[in-house]
Design brief:
The protein is α+β, with helices and mostly antiparallel strands and 527 residues long. The protein contains seven helices and 30 strands. It has two domains: 394 residues, Purple Acid Phosphatase, chain A, domain 2 (4-Layer Sandwich), CATH 3.60.21.10; 119 residues, Immunoglobulin-like. Strands 12-13-16-17-19-18 form a six-stranded mixed beta sheet, with helices on one face. Strands 11-10-9-20-21 form a five-stranded mixed beta sheet, with helices on one face. The protein has a five-stranded mixed beta sheet with strand order 23-30-29-25-26, with no helix packed on it. Helix 2 packs parallel to helix 3 and helix 5 packs parallel to helix 6. The radius of gyration is 25 Å and the shape is elongated. It starts with 6 loop residues before the first helix and ends with a strand.
Length: 527
């Protein structure tokens, strides 16, 4: 989706100016054109509007900036230029066509001359604007309560890493009870030819899948930001759009701004949304009820988005909002307040999601040949399961190929001298923990529960993994990244005067959603 559609188009639709008055519309200064079409109930499923297939009223359609609703006959009209993607905003209780890649097909690309010549091809020439651009829909049941699967960066470089993803995550998601899945960008790792195999692999989950654009998914030889998503458009469609499912409104954002090829060959980008995308969000939300939960997905965390406060102004008066990102290859829960530029009545929850590739598929391989890929904050790679129920939501972390209750790691020495117990630190990394988590420890089954202190530090477990790479005989596999501060680490000390022998450390934690988890570790006390 391009940021170049002129403001004039929005004024035409907003104030109903006739097409004849639009003399300077379009990114190239040509006379404004209008696309017409119908959103209809495709009863026979052939994706063509046949006689007797009725139009559907009050369905939103957009050109990436303006948002209009279909009339009683399902008809809409929108201005277009020579590089426009028209898309239907999927309404509650309906679905769009879904292809063999499990990709929702809800858009039409109007690019008469096609994309420019790039290393990774974009869109082929689409030819003249059709007389009618129609969007088929199909009714489906959408319960008030449903789940979705959320992946951070898969960031696959080649087929070998796609195979890692397949064995590490996809195989355990087969037949998952979820309405759809969504990846938060960096689907590829610069080689955009992997899109096909990656999408076919995730399609094996059997659920529709949506893809956010990340900084490693762009055409790096593009001269402008407007042309940096051509390969993404060809395969996945618009880089920003919205849709409804159940009682939730989702907005998929493109918050990566390409600044053009760097003279030094670096990755020249920044976090940003741009004028057109912000206008789309404004126009989109104008037709979304205030009591609806609005979920925004993006790649770069909001703290790094240059025009984030303009986005805040559009959502902060709403009582129910949530935003999701990835990019950091660590996991973190943020709660934005006035100190962060957020003026809402309640803090805004922003989740920086665990990445599927963890630490870029690095680390020692296990008996199956899969790297452990532990992230730099000590958390394992994996994904999140989001459950929605009306405007309420909850989030569960899931470590790849681990039991569902594997939610923390206790770091403690194997052996402690009896005289040093009260000076021995215990660290607990609660992988999805936040400032709203409570973490407690006790020794044995009858001991007193001791609150642990939340600290900002590097996870000693990950530090130990990294130190192993400096030995004369380092572990196999590619090297891990440098340790980073962990935002979900707790610390405590052992009680005094523990008797020699084996002791069991119990840890329990509860999160902001009321989930409670437990973990255990054995230590030995010696004289």
């Amino acid at each position: 989706m391009k940021r170049s559609i002129k403001v004039l188009f929005g004024l035409i639709v907003l104030f109903g100016l006739p097409a004849a008055q639009a003399s300077a519309g379009g990114a190239k200064g040509k006379e404004a054109k209008f696309a017409d079409g119908v959103v209809y109930h495709d009863r026979n499923g052939n994706q063509r509007r046949d006689s007797g297939e009725r139009g559907i009223r009050n369905v939103r359609v957009s050109n990436g900036r303006d948002v209009v609703e279909t009339d009683w006959n399902g008809q809409y009209r929108l201005p277009v230029d020579e590089d426009t993607i028209l898309f239907v905003i999927k309404p509650k209780g309906w679905r769009t066509p879904i292809d063999e890649y499990q990709l929702p097909r809800f858009y039409y690309i109007h690019k008469p001359k096609g994309s420019p010549r790039l290393k990774y091809p974009g869109v082929a020439p689409t030819g003249p604007l059709p007389e009618s651009i129609n969007f088929p829909l199909y009714p489906q049941k959408e319960p008030k309560k449903f789940r979705m699967i959320l992946l951070g960066d898969t960031q696959v470089t080649n087929q070998r890493e796609i195979d890692y993803l397949a064995h590490d995550i996809v195989e355990e998601l087969l037949g998952v009870d979820a309405a759809f899945g969504l990846t938060l960008g960096d689907n590829a790792n610069n080689d955009l030819s992997v899109f096909d195999s990656l999408a076919r692999t995730l399609a094996l989950t059997g659920i529709p899948w949506r893809y956010t654009l990340g900084n490693h998914d762009m055409n790096y030889d593009a001269l402008t930001d407007e042309l940096s998503d051509e390969a993404h458009e060809r395969f996945f469609g618009p880089s920003y759009y919205s849709f409804d499912y159940g009682s939730v409104h989702f907005i998929v954002l493109n918050d990566v701004e390409w600044l053009g090829p760097s003279k030094k060959g670096g990755r020249n980008y920044r976090g940003g949304l741009g004028e057109a995308q912000l206008e789309f969000v404004q126009n989109d939300l104008a037709r979304v009820p205030e009591n609806r939960l609005v979920v925004l997905t993006m790649h770069i965390p909001l703290m790094q988005v240059r025009d984030r406060e303009a986005l805040y102004r559009l959502i902060e008066d709403r009582p129910y909002t949530l935003s999701l990102s990835a990019h950091y290859h660590t996991q973190r829960n943020e709660f934005f307040t006035a100190e962060d530029g957020w003026n809402g009545a309640e803090p805004h929850h922003h989740l920086i999601n665990v990445t599927a590739c963890g630490s870029w598929w690095s680390g020692a391989p296990d008996e199956l040949g899969l790297p452990h890929a532990t992230m730099a904050d000590g958390a394992p790679n994996g994904y999140s399961i989001l459950t929605f129920d009306g405007h309420a939501y909850s989030i569960e972390f899931k470590a790849a190929r681990r039991p569902a209750d594997y939610q923390m790691n206790i770091f403690a020495p194997e052996v402690v001298k009896a005289a040093q117990t009260d000076a021995t630190e215990i660290f607990v990394n609660v992988f999805a923990g936040s400032e709203r988590s409570r973490v407690e420890m006790r020794l044995g089954n009858q001991g007193t529960w001791i609150p642990l202190e939340k600290v900002m530090a590097k996870d000693p477990f990950f530090v130990a993994l990294k130190e192993m790479e400096e030995r004369d005989t380092p572990p196999a596999g590619s090297k891990l990244p440098r340790p980073r501060d962990c935002w979900h680490l707790w610390r405590g000390t052992l009680p005094q005067r523990l008797a020699p022998g084996a002791h069991l450390i119990h840890v329990r934690t509860s999160d902001l959603f009321g989930h409670t988890y437990r973990a255990h570790r054995v230590i030995r006390i010696v004289e």
